[in-house]
Structures are given as structure tokens and as C-alpha cells.
Amino acid sequence: MHWGSNWGYEIPQEQMDFAHQLVEFDHVDIVFEHSSHHPKGIEVYRGKLILYGCGYFLDDYEGITGYEAFRDDLVLMYFPTMRTADGTLISLEMVPLQIRNMCLHRASRADAEWLASILNREGKTLQTSVKLGLDGVLTRIAQISRLERGPTYRFRYYHQHLRRIDAGS
Length: 169
Prior knowledge:
Blueprint: H1 13-24, E1 30-32, E2 42-45, E3 48-51, E4 74-83, E5 89-100, E6 103-106, H2 109-123, E7 130-132, E8 138-140, H3 146-149, E9 152-158, E10 161-167
Parallel strand pairs: 1-3
Antiparallel strand pairs: 2-3, 4-5, 4-9, 5-6, 5-8, 7-8, 9-10
């Protein structure tokens, strides 16, 4: 969905209400909002993933000044794992990338740490947090045991194609 301001971390109550209604009425399993030019908060509402601002995956904003504090050069590639039966989020991995010269590159450790701190700061009100692994991948911290999972499907990036991969419990 394309909505909201281009800059800033505030999530208007109307957007939260609408995202919640989409989940409540079983219309969606993931709400993906992408108007902001930088990543924003993440929420898990009734087991469904809401990404309130994903930024632009690749853009031509390099060199535009005045918004450096938002680090629009840093983006995330999102990889949710969801339960097949009902679309409940099981886990979420995010790969931090940096846009340089209209190309995507793995973000430095310092940049990945910066993204983790932003997501954790913004996640406080949404009751979400992330951790940064040794591999440079951000993972949403969840309290779901293997017994609760059931059959799942994962989105993974293989050979430069995003595919749905069915997996057992």
C-alpha cells in the first residue's frame, strides 16, 4: 500500500486502524506499506505482519539533501515465514542493504546496527523488537514455540528470484 508521509517515523492512528481492519476482516496476511523513503515500525497484530514503512528498495534519491538523518540509502529485504493454514507470522528476517550508485550492496555492520536501533526504538510502542545476528541479518524477536507452528511457508531469495518455498512443521 502506498500511503503516509515520505519522511518521519510517526504512524497516524488512521493508518494503524486501517491496517488492523484489513487483518481483522481476514483480507490480508501481510500489510506492506511503502510510501516512506526509509524503514519505519513493524507490528504483529493478531499474528499478522504489518510493515508500516518499508522505504524504497531502489531509488534515485542519492544526493538529495535535507533528510540525511533518515538514512534513505539503507533499505531492508524482508523474508517472512508464515504458517500455511492461516497466514500467521512465525518469523521475520530482514537483510540490510545500502543503495550506492543505483545498485544494492550489503550494508556495513555499523549501518545494520543503526537500522536495528531505529527498528527497536520505533518498535517500543508497537511491542516489537529485532536483533542483529553475526551474519548481518536482522531477526524479529518472537516467542513462538515449534509446537505452535504447524506447516509453514517461507519466502527466500534464491538465484535472484523471490520464491515461495513450502516447508513442513
